[in-house]
Design goal:
Layout lengths: L6 E12 L6 E12 L3 E5 L6 H9 L6 E6 L2 E2 L5 H10 E4 L13 H11 L6 H14 L4 H4 L9 H15 L3 E5 L7 H18 L2 E6 L2 H7 L2 E6 L2 E7 H6 L4 H8 L4 H4 L4
Parallel strand pairs: 3-8, 3-9, 6-7, 7-8
Antiparallel strand pairs: 1-2, 1-4, 4-5, 9-10
Helix pairs in contact: 3-6, 4-6, 6-7
The chain binds adenosine-5'-triphosphate.
Pfam families: ABC_tran
InterPro entries: AAA+_ATPase, ABC_transporter-like_ATP-bd, ABC_transporter-like_CS, P-loop_NTPase
GO molecular function: ATP binding; ATP hydrolysis activity
């Protein structure tokens, strides 16, 4: 784990209610969190437990019904365009479906060039080319073979890698990864996880990993939050939560994973 434990993002009593009256759903209920620089946090829960809603509130894509997020020592404000622009420079997301992340009508070269533009960098053609090549080689892709292709001409694994290449170029302070490995085979999955670990190690990035897979959470995280029906029912280091779970829901999640100890080398 990173030795830099600067605490820089807190959630206080975050709540999201959808709908009214009989249709009312409290998707996230009074959630507190405390994320540090360079920390990998997993938010684990079953389908419908509120993980994606929480992630969208952290991203600033959904407005909270109540509660606040403190970021870098101040209450986060996203009302003004300039505030949103500054926040979204620091925070990026990758989703389980790479098709949702790319403009399918833009070739790979344009998708990567947009990252350079987003950062406001003034580079020569050679420098731009070198940056795109570097990002592709970070994820073991060959820029020369891909730059002229559309995203739908790539395999699922190549698209996932391209998403990570974009994160490498943008180097956000916070990355939200919503089940980014769910559409790839086991081999590509461990490569993607290793790339995320490398991103954290090289850039002191905070990574918030959204998953229903407790084994995966144990493999990748420093800290795990367990979410049930909109609430955080347990949180702690990965070892504490997975090896000595306290809450019945966490115990059940772990029991539901066949042979978790063998599959994830838990000893
Ligand atoms: N826009 C919305 N309008 C109404 N209800 C919603 C909306 N988005 C989510 N919900 C409800 O909020 C609850 C939490 O959903 P959410 O997508 O956050 O769960 P999740 O843990 O991410 O699930 P999954 O793992 O299946 O993605 C669910 O009951 C869902 O139906």
């Amino acid at each position: 784990m990173s030795s830099n434990r600067e605490s820089f993002m807190h959630g206080k009593q975050l709540t999201k209610v959808f709908g009214f009256g009989q249709q009312k759903v409290t998707a996230v209920q009074a959630v507190d969190f405390d994320f540090h620089r360079g920390e990998i946090i997993s938010i684990v829960g079953e389908s419908g437990s509120g993980k994606t809603t929480l992630a969208k509130m952290i991203m600033g894509l959904l407005k909270e019904s109540s509660g606040t997020i403190e970021y870098k020592g101040k209450t986060r404000q996203l009302k003004r365009h300039a505030e949103r622009k500054a926040y979204w420079k620091d925070i990026q997301a990758i989703f389980q479906d790479p098709f949702a992340s790319f403009n399918m009508f833009h070739k790979v070269e344009k998708l990567l060039l947009d990252c350079i533009k987003l950062q406001g960098l003034q580079l020569t053609k050679d420098e731009r080319f070198a940056k795109m090549k570097e990002a592709c080689s970070f994820v073991n892709l060959k820029f020369e073979e891909l730059y002229n292709k559309y995203p739908f001409e790539l395999s699922g694994g190549q698209m996932q890698r391209l998403m990570i290449a974009r994160i490498f170029m943008l180097h956000p302070k916070v990355l939200i990864a919503d089940e980014p490995t769910s559409m790839v085979d086991a081999c590509s999955r461990s490569t993607i996880l290793d790339m995320l670990l490398k991103l954290r190690d090289e850039n002191n990035m905070t990574i918030i990993f959204i998953t229903h897979d407790v084994g995966l959470a144990y493999y990748i995280s420093d800290t795990i939050y367990i979410m049930e029906k909109g609430k955080i029912v347990e949180r702690g280091t990965a070892e504490e939560v997975i090896l000595s779970p306290q809450h019945p829901y966490t115990k059940q999640l772990i029991a539901d994973v066949p042979k978790i100890h063998e599959a994830w080398n838990l000893g």
